[in-house]
Amino acid sequence: MTSAAGSLPSGRRRSRFPLLRLSFFLLSSAAAAWAVEVGPASVAGWRVALVGKRIGNGATFDASALAPLLDLKGVNILQSPCTGDVQQGALFIAARLAELALNVGEFAELDGRLEKVETLARETLVCSPHNSFAWFALYWSQGRRVGFTRRTLDYLDMSYRMGPREGWISVRRNPQAMLVYRQLSPELKARLVEEWRLLLEARLFQPAALALAQIPEGDRQTLFDQRARLDSNLWALFSDFLDLQGIDILLPDAPERRRTPWRAG
Fold this sequence. Notes:
It is a single chain. The chain has 265 residues and is mainly alpha-helical. 61% of the residues lie in helices and 0% in strands. It has helices spanning 29-38, 40-56, 63-71, 84-104, 107-127, 132-146, 150-162, 167-178, 186-201, 205-214, 220-224, 232-244. α2 crosses α4 (84-104), α8 (167-178) crosses α9 (186-201) and α9 packs antiparallel against α10.
């Protein structure tokens, strides 16, 4: 699927960070034999489901590998209105294609790809209204297309209600949600902050770092306040991770960073 969410204490530097990217298959001879038996439409659907699952687990593919799979969706891949694995796989592939277009600046294609994500997300929700990722995909795609309106933010709220502690969704959702932190309700802000702390507790430092960089500087203290609920060693490790990634956000109460030769000065 294409798809793919306080003030700094004095002396802290402005963020400088690298692009962090939110995150094929080989058919065995046995699978090939199965393919002959079940027919091309079923094989195409199986491939969409498999590739989508791998994207959901963090695998990356380029657009040239993904686009043909998504195009097949219109050729009788779905043999019934609701085919969960295939539907979810197509949504992941569409989201990844939209993310790739956004990352490389292919804006001529971006709107169509985002619209595809939105369409697939809505189709998924008709069949599975509790699908937290589909609600998030709807928030992300519509927010990018028409802006983060009240209705768009309601989709984000539904994602948190349906799946408040799903790690594979959190790593994508938390950084994207931090972008609109000031537009959220107090309840939703609290969910974001808790989710960010849970990312740190799970040592998922990359999405936590991106989320920290995305939240408005004037609101970072809200995240820094989570320090009291974290192990001091974990806070120090996260500080070291920020340094290694070249992210110049200093964490309060973290040990002083040791300057490495390539970062001296």
